[in-house]
TrEMBL record:
Residues 232-252 are annotated as: Linker. GO terms for biological process: cell morphogenesis; cell wall organization; lipid A biosynthetic process; peptidoglycan biosynthetic process; regulation of cell shape; UDP-N-acetylglucosamine biosynthetic process. The lineage of its organism: Bacteria, Pseudomonadati, Pseudomonadota, Alphaproteobacteria, Hyphomicrobiales. Acetyl-CoA binds at residues 365, 371-372, 390, 408, 425. Pathway: Nucleotide-sugar biosynthesis; UDP-N-acetyl-alpha-D-glucosamine biosynthesis; N-acetyl-alpha-D-glucosamine 1-phosphate from alpha-D-glucosamine 6-phosphate (route II): step 2/2; Nucleotide-sugar biosynthesis; UDP-N-acetyl-alpha-D-glucosamine biosynthesis; UDP-N-acetyl-alpha-D-glucosamine from N-acetyl-alpha-D-glucosamine 1-phosphate: step 1/1; Bacterial outer membrane biogenesis; LPS lipid A biosynthesis. Homotrimer. This is Bifunctional protein GlmU.
Protein backbone atom coordinates (compact mmCIF):
# COMPACT_ATOMS: atom_id res chain seq x y z
CA UNK A 1 0.00 0.00 0.00
CA UNK A 2 1.24 3.51 -0.76
CA UNK A 3 2.63 5.28 2.29
CA UNK A 4 0.91 8.50 3.29
CA UNK A 5 3.15 11.54 3.28
CA UNK A 6 3.02 14.99 4.81
CA UNK A 7 5.42 17.58 3.42
CA UNK A 8 6.35 20.54 5.61
CA UNK A 9 7.82 23.46 3.71
CA UNK A 10 9.75 25.96 5.83
CA UNK A 11 9.29 29.37 4.29
CA UNK A 12 9.36 31.85 7.14
CA UNK A 13 12.62 33.55 6.29
CA UNK A 14 12.96 37.13 5.12
CA UNK A 15 16.08 36.71 3.04
CA UNK A 16 17.81 40.00 3.90
CA UNK A 17 20.69 39.23 1.55
CA UNK A 18 18.35 39.37 -1.44
CA UNK A 19 18.11 43.17 -0.87
CA UNK A 20 14.43 42.98 -1.65
CA UNK A 21 11.09 44.14 -0.28
CA UNK A 22 9.68 40.78 -1.34
CA UNK A 23 9.99 37.61 0.78
CA UNK A 24 12.87 35.50 -0.48
CA UNK A 25 10.80 32.46 -1.45
CA UNK A 26 8.70 34.57 -3.83
CA UNK A 27 11.61 35.34 -6.12
CA UNK A 28 11.19 33.35 -9.29
CA UNK A 29 12.97 30.76 -11.34
CA UNK A 30 11.47 29.84 -14.68
CA UNK A 31 8.54 32.14 -13.88
CA UNK A 32 7.57 30.26 -10.70
CA UNK A 33 8.34 31.39 -7.12
CA UNK A 34 11.07 29.39 -5.38
CA UNK A 35 8.52 28.00 -2.93
CA UNK A 36 6.37 26.89 -5.87
CA UNK A 37 9.20 24.73 -7.19
CA UNK A 38 9.51 23.08 -3.79
CA UNK A 39 5.76 22.50 -3.57
CA UNK A 40 5.69 20.91 -7.02
CA UNK A 41 8.65 18.67 -6.17
CA UNK A 42 7.06 17.31 -2.99
CA UNK A 43 3.78 16.80 -4.84
CA UNK A 44 5.51 14.71 -7.51
CA UNK A 45 7.32 12.83 -4.76
CA UNK A 46 3.90 11.73 -3.49
CA UNK A 47 3.10 14.13 -0.67
CA UNK A 48 -0.56 13.61 0.18
CA UNK A 49 -0.70 16.57 2.57
CA UNK A 50 1.14 19.85 2.56
CA UNK A 51 1.94 22.24 5.40
CA UNK A 52 3.71 25.51 4.74
CA UNK A 53 5.33 27.48 7.56
CA UNK A 54 5.28 31.17 6.78
CA UNK A 55 6.48 34.24 8.67
CA UNK A 56 7.86 37.19 6.78
CA UNK A 57 5.32 38.26 4.15
CA UNK A 58 2.99 35.50 5.37
CA UNK A 59 -0.04 36.46 3.29
CA UNK A 60 1.89 36.88 0.07
CA UNK A 61 3.66 33.55 0.51
CA UNK A 62 0.37 31.79 1.30
CA UNK A 63 -1.19 33.36 -1.78
CA UNK A 64 1.64 32.03 -3.95
CA UNK A 65 1.18 28.50 -2.60
CA UNK A 66 -2.64 28.33 -2.88
CA UNK A 67 -2.93 28.04 -6.68
CA UNK A 68 -0.56 25.06 -6.61
CA UNK A 69 -2.00 23.37 -3.55
CA UNK A 70 -5.50 24.50 -2.68
CA UNK A 71 -5.59 22.31 0.43
CA UNK A 72 -2.22 23.36 1.83
CA UNK A 73 -2.32 24.08 5.56
CA UNK A 74 -0.60 27.37 6.33
CA UNK A 75 1.11 27.89 9.69
CA UNK A 76 2.67 31.07 10.94
CA UNK A 77 5.95 31.13 12.82
CA UNK A 78 5.97 34.54 14.44
CA UNK A 79 9.43 34.38 16.04
CA UNK A 80 12.18 32.65 14.10
CA UNK A 81 13.79 30.52 16.75
CA UNK A 82 15.35 27.88 14.51
CA UNK A 83 14.51 25.13 12.09
CA UNK A 84 13.07 22.75 14.73
CA UNK A 85 10.94 25.58 16.10
CA UNK A 86 9.74 26.25 12.54
CA UNK A 87 8.67 22.63 12.04
CA UNK A 88 6.85 22.74 15.37
CA UNK A 89 4.78 25.66 14.09
CA UNK A 90 3.02 22.95 12.06
CA UNK A 91 2.31 20.90 15.20
CA UNK A 92 -1.39 20.60 14.37
CA UNK A 93 -0.53 18.96 11.05
CA UNK A 94 1.93 16.60 12.78
CA UNK A 95 -0.68 15.46 15.28
CA UNK A 96 -2.65 13.66 12.57
CA UNK A 97 -1.11 10.22 11.90
CA UNK A 98 1.03 9.94 8.79
CA UNK A 99 3.67 7.45 7.58
CA UNK A 100 6.31 9.80 6.19
CA UNK A 101 7.06 13.45 6.87
CA UNK A 102 9.21 15.31 4.37
CA UNK A 103 10.79 18.46 5.76
CA UNK A 104 11.99 20.78 3.04
CA UNK A 105 13.13 24.41 2.78
CA UNK A 106 11.21 26.88 0.64
CA UNK A 107 14.44 28.33 -0.75
CA UNK A 108 15.88 25.14 -2.30
CA UNK A 109 14.11 25.20 -5.68
CA UNK A 110 16.28 22.63 -7.42
CA UNK A 111 15.24 19.72 -5.23
CA UNK A 112 14.28 16.84 -7.48
CA UNK A 113 11.61 14.25 -7.05
CA UNK A 114 14.28 11.53 -7.25
CA UNK A 115 16.14 12.90 -4.21
CA UNK A 116 12.93 13.18 -2.19
CA UNK A 117 11.96 9.73 -3.41
CA UNK A 118 15.30 8.26 -2.26
CA UNK A 119 14.75 9.66 1.23
CA UNK A 120 11.22 8.24 1.36
CA UNK A 121 12.52 4.93 0.05
CA UNK A 122 14.92 4.79 3.01
CA UNK A 123 11.92 5.09 5.35
CA UNK A 124 10.05 2.41 3.43
CA UNK A 125 13.07 0.15 3.93
CA UNK A 126 13.05 0.65 7.69
CA UNK A 127 14.89 3.88 8.46
CA UNK A 128 13.26 6.26 10.93
CA UNK A 129 15.11 9.37 9.80
CA UNK A 130 16.72 9.89 6.40
CA UNK A 131 18.82 13.03 6.03
CA UNK A 132 19.68 14.30 2.57
CA UNK A 133 23.44 14.78 2.53
CA UNK A 134 25.88 15.86 -0.14
CA UNK A 135 29.60 15.69 -0.69
CA UNK A 136 31.53 18.89 -1.28
CA UNK A 137 35.10 20.17 -1.29
CA UNK A 138 33.88 23.37 0.31
CA UNK A 139 31.77 22.37 3.34
CA UNK A 140 32.08 25.67 5.17
CA UNK A 141 28.77 26.90 6.56
CA UNK A 142 27.00 23.56 6.44
CA UNK A 143 26.15 21.10 9.18
CA UNK A 144 28.53 18.08 9.11
CA UNK A 145 27.17 14.55 9.06
CA UNK A 146 28.75 12.34 11.71
CA UNK A 147 28.45 8.70 10.71
CA UNK A 148 29.25 5.44 12.47
CA UNK A 149 29.27 2.67 9.89
CA UNK A 150 26.15 3.09 7.78
CA UNK A 151 24.34 4.92 10.57
CA UNK A 152 24.15 8.65 11.16
CA UNK A 153 24.74 9.55 14.80
CA UNK A 154 24.70 13.34 14.79
CA UNK A 155 24.72 16.50 12.73
CA UNK A 156 27.06 19.15 14.02
CA UNK A 157 26.53 22.71 12.88
CA UNK A 158 29.59 24.59 11.61
CA UNK A 159 29.62 26.86 14.65
CA UNK A 160 29.59 23.92 17.06
CA UNK A 161 32.02 21.74 15.11
CA UNK A 162 35.45 20.75 16.42
CA UNK A 163 38.45 21.21 14.12
CA UNK A 164 38.36 17.50 13.33
CA UNK A 165 34.64 17.59 12.52
CA UNK A 166 35.20 20.59 10.25
CA UNK A 167 37.36 18.33 8.07
CA UNK A 168 34.28 16.24 7.22
CA UNK A 169 33.07 16.92 3.69
CA UNK A 170 29.76 15.03 3.85
CA UNK A 171 27.26 17.78 4.68
CA UNK A 172 23.65 18.27 5.65
CA UNK A 173 21.53 19.52 2.78
CA UNK A 174 18.94 20.49 5.36
CA UNK A 175 16.11 18.36 4.02
CA UNK A 176 14.90 15.25 5.80
CA UNK A 177 12.37 12.46 5.73
CA UNK A 178 11.16 11.31 9.14
CA UNK A 179 8.83 8.52 10.19
CA UNK A 180 5.66 10.32 11.23
CA UNK A 181 5.09 8.54 14.53
CA UNK A 182 8.45 9.64 15.99
CA UNK A 183 8.77 13.21 14.82
CA UNK A 184 6.79 15.19 17.39
CA UNK A 185 8.38 13.43 20.34
CA UNK A 186 11.84 14.13 18.93
CA UNK A 187 11.11 17.78 18.18
CA UNK A 188 9.75 18.36 21.67
CA UNK A 189 13.10 17.23 23.12
CA UNK A 190 15.19 19.67 21.07
CA UNK A 191 16.84 22.37 23.21
CA UNK A 192 18.37 25.68 22.24
CA UNK A 193 21.64 25.38 24.16
CA UNK A 194 23.96 26.19 21.30
CA UNK A 195 25.94 29.16 20.01
CA UNK A 196 23.00 30.62 18.13
CA UNK A 197 20.45 29.98 20.86
CA UNK A 198 18.24 28.30 18.25
CA UNK A 199 16.22 25.12 18.19
CA UNK A 200 18.07 23.08 15.59
CA UNK A 201 16.11 20.54 13.56
CA UNK A 202 19.42 18.77 13.07
CA UNK A 203 19.44 17.81 16.77
CA UNK A 204 16.75 15.20 16.16
CA UNK A 205 19.44 13.05 14.59
CA UNK A 206 21.43 12.61 17.83
CA UNK A 207 18.20 12.35 19.83
CA UNK A 208 16.94 9.64 17.50
CA UNK A 209 20.24 7.75 17.49
CA UNK A 210 20.24 7.75 21.31
CA UNK A 211 16.77 6.21 21.29
CA UNK A 212 18.07 3.48 18.98
CA UNK A 213 16.12 4.73 16.00
CA UNK A 214 17.57 3.95 12.60
CA UNK A 215 19.04 7.18 11.22
CA UNK A 216 20.62 7.28 7.79
CA UNK A 217 22.14 9.77 5.43
CA UNK A 218 21.04 9.59 1.82
CA UNK A 219 23.57 11.12 -0.55
CA UNK A 220 22.02 13.38 -3.17
CA UNK A 221 23.57 15.62 -5.81
CA UNK A 222 24.51 19.04 -4.43
CA UNK A 223 22.18 20.79 -6.91
CA UNK A 224 19.24 19.33 -5.03
CA UNK A 225 20.01 21.19 -1.84
CA UNK A 226 21.33 24.51 -3.11
CA UNK A 227 19.67 27.22 -1.04
CA UNK A 228 19.10 30.68 -2.46
CA UNK A 229 20.30 33.55 -0.30
CA UNK A 230 21.49 36.18 -2.76
CA UNK A 231 20.61 37.46 -6.24
CA UNK A 232 23.80 35.83 -7.49
CA UNK A 233 22.66 32.45 -6.18
CA UNK A 234 19.25 33.09 -7.71
CA UNK A 235 20.82 33.71 -11.10
CA UNK A 236 23.04 30.62 -10.75
CA UNK A 237 20.05 28.47 -9.82
CA UNK A 238 18.09 29.86 -12.77
CA UNK A 239 20.93 28.84 -15.03
CA UNK A 240 21.07 25.29 -13.61
CA UNK A 241 17.28 25.01 -13.85
CA UNK A 242 17.24 26.23 -17.45
CA UNK A 243 19.91 23.67 -18.29
CA UNK A 244 17.71 20.91 -16.86
CA UNK A 245 14.75 22.10 -18.94
CA UNK A 246 16.79 22.13 -22.12
CA UNK A 247 17.99 18.60 -21.50
CA UNK A 248 14.46 17.42 -20.68
CA UNK A 249 13.00 18.99 -23.83
CA UNK A 250 15.76 17.57 -26.03
CA UNK A 251 15.14 14.14 -24.53
CA UNK A 252 11.43 14.46 -25.30
CA UNK A 253 12.13 15.06 -28.99
CA UNK A 254 12.30 18.85 -29.30
CA UNK A 255 15.02 20.07 -31.67
CA UNK A 256 17.01 23.12 -30.60
CA UNK A 257 19.81 24.52 -32.71
CA UNK A 258 21.34 26.39 -29.78
CA UNK A 259 19.69 25.08 -26.60
CA UNK A 260 21.76 27.36 -24.36
CA UNK A 261 19.98 30.37 -25.88
CA UNK A 262 16.42 29.13 -25.34
CA UNK A 263 14.62 30.09 -22.08
CA UNK A 264 11.79 28.08 -20.61
CA UNK A 265 9.14 28.63 -17.97
CA UNK A 266 8.09 26.04 -15.44
CA UNK A 267 4.93 25.21 -17.41
CA UNK A 268 6.21 25.33 -21.00
CA UNK A 269 4.74 22.43 -22.97
CA UNK A 270 6.38 21.53 -26.25
CA UNK A 271 5.51 18.47 -28.31
CA UNK A 272 8.03 16.24 -30.03
CA UNK A 273 9.30 17.34 -33.44
CA UNK A 274 9.00 21.03 -32.72
CA UNK A 275 12.00 22.95 -34.02
CA UNK A 276 13.28 25.91 -32.03
CA UNK A 277 15.86 28.22 -33.53
CA UNK A 278 18.31 30.24 -31.40
CA UNK A 279 17.38 33.06 -29.00
CA UNK A 280 13.82 32.23 -28.09
CA UNK A 281 12.12 33.15 -24.79
CA UNK A 282 9.11 31.26 -23.45
CA UNK A 283 7.20 33.08 -20.70
CA UNK A 284 4.51 31.33 -18.70
CA UNK A 285 1.59 29.48 -20.26
CA UNK A 286 3.00 28.34 -23.59
CA UNK A 287 1.88 25.19 -25.36
CA UNK A 288 3.23 24.13 -28.75
CA UNK A 289 2.00 21.24 -30.89
CA UNK A 290 4.08 18.93 -33.06
CA UNK A 291 6.04 20.12 -36.09
CA UNK A 292 5.68 23.78 -35.29
CA UNK A 293 8.76 25.89 -35.99
CA UNK A 294 9.77 28.76 -33.73
CA UNK A 295 12.20 30.91 -35.65
CA UNK A 296 14.97 32.90 -34.03
CA UNK A 297 14.46 35.87 -31.68
CA UNK A 298 10.86 35.25 -30.77
CA UNK A 299 9.28 36.20 -27.43
CA UNK A 300 6.29 34.03 -26.54
CA UNK A 301 4.05 33.94 -23.47
CA UNK A 302 0.53 32.76 -22.73
CA UNK A 303 0.23 31.41 -26.26
CA UNK A 304 -1.01 28.21 -27.81
CA UNK A 305 0.67 27.25 -31.07
CA UNK A 306 -0.90 24.63 -33.32
CA UNK A 307 0.75 21.83 -35.23
CA UNK A 308 3.10 22.83 -38.05
CA UNK A 309 2.54 26.51 -37.31
CA UNK A 310 5.43 28.91 -37.94
CA UNK A 311 6.40 31.76 -35.66
CA UNK A 312 9.01 34.44 -36.22
CA UNK A 313 11.76 35.29 -36.68
CA UNK A 314 11.30 38.31 -34.37
CA UNK A 315 7.69 37.56 -33.47
CA UNK A 316 5.99 38.46 -30.23
CA UNK A 317 3.09 36.33 -29.04
CA UNK A 318 1.38 37.71 -25.95
CA UNK A 319 -1.19 36.15 -23.63
CA UNK A 320 -4.23 34.81 -25.41
CA UNK A 321 -2.52 34.32 -28.76
CA UNK A 322 -3.85 31.14 -30.33
CA UNK A 323 -2.41 29.92 -33.58
CA UNK A 324 -4.28 27.09 -35.28
CA UNK A 325 -2.72 24.35 -37.39
CA UNK A 326 -0.24 25.67 -39.99
CA UNK A 327 -0.88 29.33 -39.15
CA UNK A 328 2.03 31.71 -39.68
CA UNK A 329 3.08 34.77 -37.72
CA UNK A 330 6.17 36.31 -39.22
CA UNK A 331 8.75 38.96 -38.49
CA UNK A 332 7.96 42.01 -36.37
CA UNK A 333 4.40 40.90 -35.72
CA UNK A 334 2.68 41.11 -32.34
CA UNK A 335 -0.37 39.00 -31.55
CA UNK A 336 -2.33 39.43 -28.32
CA UNK A 337 -5.61 37.85 -27.22
CA UNK A 338 -6.32 36.78 -30.76
CA UNK A 339 -7.03 33.58 -32.64
CA UNK A 340 -5.26 33.07 -35.95
CA UNK A 341 -7.10 30.42 -37.99
CA UNK A 342 -5.70 27.36 -39.70
CA UNK A 343 -3.32 28.27 -42.49
CA UNK A 344 -3.87 31.99 -41.97
CA UNK A 345 -0.86 34.26 -42.51
CA UNK A 346 0.20 37.31 -40.55
CA UNK A 347 3.63 37.64 -41.99
CA UNK A 348 5.06 41.12 -41.67
CA UNK A 349 5.08 44.14 -39.35
CA UNK A 350 1.60 43.74 -37.97
CA UNK A 351 -0.31 44.15 -34.70
CA UNK A 352 -3.25 41.83 -34.12
CA UNK A 353 -4.90 42.41 -30.74
CA UNK A 354 -8.33 41.35 -29.46
CA UNK A 355 -9.19 39.75 -32.76
CA UNK A 356 -10.08 36.58 -34.56
CA UNK A 357 -8.84 35.68 -38.00
CA UNK A 358 -10.57 32.90 -39.93
CA UNK A 359 -8.83 30.03 -41.67
CA UNK A 360 -6.64 30.78 -44.71
CA UNK A 361 -6.96 34.54 -44.50
CA UNK A 362 -4.01 36.69 -45.47
CA UNK A 363 -3.13 39.74 -43.43
CA UNK A 364 -0.92 42.13 -45.36
CA UNK A 365 2.21 43.85 -44.12
CA UNK A 366 1.66 46.68 -41.68
CA UNK A 367 -1.91 45.80 -40.75
CA UNK A 368 -2.99 47.20 -37.39
CA UNK A 369 -6.05 46.30 -35.37
CA UNK A 370 -6.91 49.55 -33.59
CA UNK A 371 -8.31 47.82 -30.54
CA UNK A 372 -8.06 50.51 -27.87
CA UNK A 373 -9.74 53.90 -27.62
CA UNK A 374 -7.93 54.92 -24.48
CA UNK A 375 -10.68 53.49 -22.29
CA UNK A 376 -11.94 50.19 -23.68
CA UNK A 377 -10.67 47.32 -25.76
CA UNK A 378 -12.70 46.33 -28.81
CA UNK A 379 -12.80 43.22 -30.96
CA UNK A 380 -11.93 42.82 -34.64
CA UNK A 381 -13.33 39.86 -36.50
CA UNK A 382 -11.94 38.73 -39.81
CA UNK A 383 -13.64 35.84 -41.58
CA UNK A 384 -12.16 32.94 -43.53
CA UNK A 385 -10.29 33.38 -46.80
CA UNK A 386 -10.29 37.13 -46.34
CA UNK A 387 -7.54 39.36 -47.72
CA UNK A 388 -6.41 42.44 -45.85
CA UNK A 389 -4.22 44.66 -48.02
CA UNK A 390 -1.00 46.07 -46.64
CA UNK A 391 -1.02 49.07 -44.33
CA UNK A 392 -4.63 48.68 -43.31
CA UNK A 393 -5.98 50.00 -40.03
CA UNK A 394 -8.97 48.04 -38.74
CA UNK A 395 -10.75 50.27 -36.24
CA UNK A 396 -12.53 48.01 -33.77
CA UNK A 397 -15.21 47.02 -33.17
CA UNK A 398 -15.38 45.92 -36.77
CA UNK A 399 -16.00 42.81 -38.84
CA UNK A 400 -14.55 41.81 -42.20
CA UNK A 401 -16.54 38.97 -43.73
CA UNK A 402 -15.54 35.66 -45.25
CA UNK A 403 -13.83 36.05 -48.59
CA UNK A 404 -13.84 39.84 -48.28
CA UNK A 405 -11.05 41.92 -49.75
CA UNK A 406 -9.72 45.11 -48.19
CA UNK A 407 -7.68 47.45 -50.35
CA UNK A 408 -4.19 48.40 -49.20
CA UNK A 409 -3.90 51.52 -47.13
CA UNK A 410 -7.48 51.40 -45.94
CA UNK A 411 -8.80 52.65 -42.65
CA UNK A 412 -11.73 50.34 -42.05
CA UNK A 413 -14.32 51.72 -39.65
CA UNK A 414 -17.40 49.98 -41.01
CA UNK A 415 -18.14 46.27 -41.31
CA UNK A 416 -17.28 44.63 -44.63
CA UNK A 417 -19.77 42.02 -45.87
CA UNK A 418 -18.76 38.55 -47.04
CA UNK A 419 -17.06 38.65 -50.45
CA UNK A 420 -17.22 42.47 -50.57
CA UNK A 421 -14.32 44.66 -51.70
CA UNK A 422 -13.67 47.58 -49.35
CA UNK A 423 -11.75 50.78 -50.08
CA UNK A 424 -11.16 52.99 -47.09
CA UNK A 425 -8.79 55.52 -48.65
CA UNK A 426 -8.77 58.63 -50.82
CA UNK A 427 -8.96 58.02 -54.57
CA UNK A 428 -5.67 58.58 -56.41
CA UNK A 429 -5.34 61.59 -58.72
CA UNK A 430 -2.58 61.79 -61.41
CA UNK A 431 -1.67 65.17 -62.96
CA UNK A 432 0.30 64.84 -66.19
CA UNK A 433 3.52 66.84 -66.35
CA UNK A 434 3.02 68.47 -62.95
CA UNK A 435 6.14 66.90 -61.45
CA UNK A 436 8.36 68.77 -63.90
CA UNK A 437 6.64 72.09 -63.15
CA UNK A 438 6.97 71.55 -59.45
CA UNK A 439 10.71 70.87 -59.71
CA UNK A 440 11.27 74.03 -61.74
CA UNK A 441 9.40 76.10 -59.15
CA UNK A 442 11.27 74.68 -56.19
CA UNK A 443 14.66 75.07 -57.92
CA UNK A 444 13.86 78.75 -58.59
CA UNK A 445 12.87 79.27 -54.96
CA UNK A 446 16.15 77.77 -53.79
CA UNK A 447 18.36 79.88 -56.09
CA UNK A 448 16.67 83.10 -54.85
CA UNK A 449 17.68 82.42 -51.23
C1 LIG B 1 20.52 24.50 7.88
C2 LIG B 1 20.96 23.29 8.65
C3 LIG B 1 22.37 22.89 8.23
C4 LIG B 1 22.43 22.64 6.76
C5 LIG B 1 21.90 23.86 6.00
C6 LIG B 1 21.77 23.53 4.53
C7 LIG B 1 19.81 23.46 10.80
C8 LIG B 1 19.96 23.80 12.22
N1 LIG B 1 20.93 23.59 10.06
O1 LIG B 1 21.38 25.57 8.27
O2 LIG B 1 22.79 21.73 8.94
O3 LIG B 1 23.74 22.33 6.36
O4 LIG B 1 20.59 24.23 6.48
O5 LIG B 1 21.44 24.66 3.80
O6 LIG B 1 18.75 23.08 10.35
N2 LIG B 1 13.64 28.73 8.80
C9 LIG B 1 12.41 29.07 9.29
N3 LIG B 1 12.29 29.44 10.58
C10 LIG B 1 13.35 29.48 11.43
C11 LIG B 1 14.61 29.13 10.93
C12 LIG B 1 14.74 28.75 9.62
O7 LIG B 1 11.42 29.04 8.55
O8 LIG B 1 13.14 29.80 12.61
C13 LIG B 1 13.79 28.34 7.41
C14 LIG B 1 14.61 29.34 6.63
O9 LIG B 1 13.80 30.33 6.04
C15 LIG B 1 15.28 28.46 5.59
C16 LIG B 1 15.43 27.12 6.29
O10 LIG B 1 14.50 27.13 7.34
O11 LIG B 1 14.48 28.28 4.45
C17 LIG B 1 16.82 26.86 6.77
O12 LIG B 1 17.22 27.84 7.71
P1 LIG B 1 18.66 28.48 7.68
O13 LIG B 1 18.71 29.54 8.73
O14 LIG B 1 19.04 28.86 6.31
O15 LIG B 1 19.57 27.26 8.16
P2 LIG B 1 21.12 27.12 7.92
O16 LIG B 1 21.85 27.89 8.95
O17 LIG B 1 21.44 27.36 6.51
MG1 LIG C 1 20.56 28.38 4.85
Amino acid sequence: MARSCLAIVLAAGEGTRMQSAMPKVLHKIGGLPLVGHVVRAVQTAGATRLAVVVGFGADEVAAAVRPLAAKAEIFTQTKRLGTAHAVLAARAALQKPVDDVLIVFGDTPLIEETALGAARQALAEGADIAVMGFHTDNPSGYGRLIEKGDRLVAIVEEKEATEAQKQITFCNGGLMAVRGKHLLALLDRVENKNTRGEYYLTDIVALGAKRKLEVRAVAVGIENVIGINTRLELAEAESLWQHRQRVAHLQRGVTMLAPETVYFSYDTQIAADVLIEPQVFFGCGVKIAARAVIHAFSHIEGAEIGGAAQVGPFARLRPGAQLAQSARVGNFCEVKNAAVGAGAKVNHLTYIGDASIGAHSNIGAGTITCNYDGYNKWHTEIGENAFIGSNTALVAPVRVGNGAYVASGSVITENVADDALAFGRARQVNKEGRAKELRARYAALKSRK
